[in-house]
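User: Hey, my collaborator sent me this sequence without any context and asked if I could get a structure. I don't really work with proteins. Can you help?
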Amino acid sequence: MFFINRLYSRLITKAICISSFSLLALLAQLSLSGCISTHQERSLASVLADINRNALEKDYNLNTREKLNETWNIYPLSIAALENQPLTVTMLLNKGADIDASIQDLNKIASMQVPYLSYSRNRIMYDKANSAIERLNQLKLQQVKPVNNNSLSVRTQEEITIKPVADELLNIKTKPGKPAGKYDVAVVIGNANYSSTGTPNVDFAIQDAQVMRQYLIKAFGYDPSNIIYIENATLTKLNEVFGTSDDYRGKLYKWVKPGQSRVFIYYVGHGAPDQQSGEGYFVPVDANPQYISTSGYKLSTFYENLSRIPALKKTVVIDACFSGSSANGQLLKGVSGLTARLKAEPKASAADILLTSADMNQVSSWYPEKGHSLFTYFFLKGIQGDADTNKDGKITMGEMKAWLNDQVPYMARRITGNQQQPVMMGMDGDELVNLTR
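Assistant: No problem. I've predicted the 3D structure and written it out in structure-token form, which is a compact way to encode the shape of the chain:
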């Protein structure tokens, strides 16, 4: 069984690399027959969604209007919507995917679960399918009307192209940046869907994370295989990547080559304070904010473990607030935003460059019109070149500070009426990205 699972792991990696749907269909049949255990706690739907994304990133000729095969009788768009991959959904739609056919797919999936809703797995799939249908219906409302109203049989790509909510970010304007080093490592985490009852979701976190990953590859020049990318990270996953208070040697530590690697870390999702100690925590998707000290990932542990990583340079970007509030409401029940405040900010000197979306006792806002968190939107606009004040193709920390300080507080007041002041540390001359070759 160990040998079979090792082989399965390698074959899935191969399938993702070559966008081989027929190979994955064979793996699906083996898995469904009970011959193979679940691959790294991931569903085959999730793996198929990754194949979609990889095929599109590599500009393969993916037939968006053809179902995968007899085993997976479902369109690529349906899989991407089911796994909540908004960037992949938009790319597929722009390549001509049929949104109505995918909605029908998802309706069938939801209907299949109805007789078995007493089982948690079926209930989860039922909810996922209905959420995906709702997202596609919202996108459908944004579709451009056909140019030729007499053309009823086949719609061209131009006729069905939607207007993406973050078009200026999805269509990366920057030319490819100077390649990152061979051993440079990045971590991208987007926490959107929280399982604890009453914990509000972070609506744009997955979109933020997916686009950040695109920028790391295309603008920062990172090798995709050197990016640790996680959507909806549990506490177990955060411990795995960053280590624990007892053992700092997590995946990130082990991927770094001492003295040669540069590290870039991006986290978007909830943060929260412990009501007793006042310490800040990242909120995993399986955490209960009421008991954050036992179910969250402590910020002080994050920075302590980061300080032990022997990297050449460490850049940390955090789009989260730690006030106990969020743009979708309170995380802590029965506690006002005035009392749920951090009593002490963690020492963040482990990072050479640190950019956080807001002061520790402020709320990080969203930018619904753009489909992103406000801070991430303007950070990536800065990377596009808006922060490059002297137009030399190099964006320094000083330029990014000036850009974010000019844009974020103003737009936060305008959109929400709240104060949001990014906190940034690092030498003004430090280079964030080099867009010259």
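In plain terms: The first strand starts at residue 185 and ends at 190. You can pass these tokens on to your collaborator as they are.
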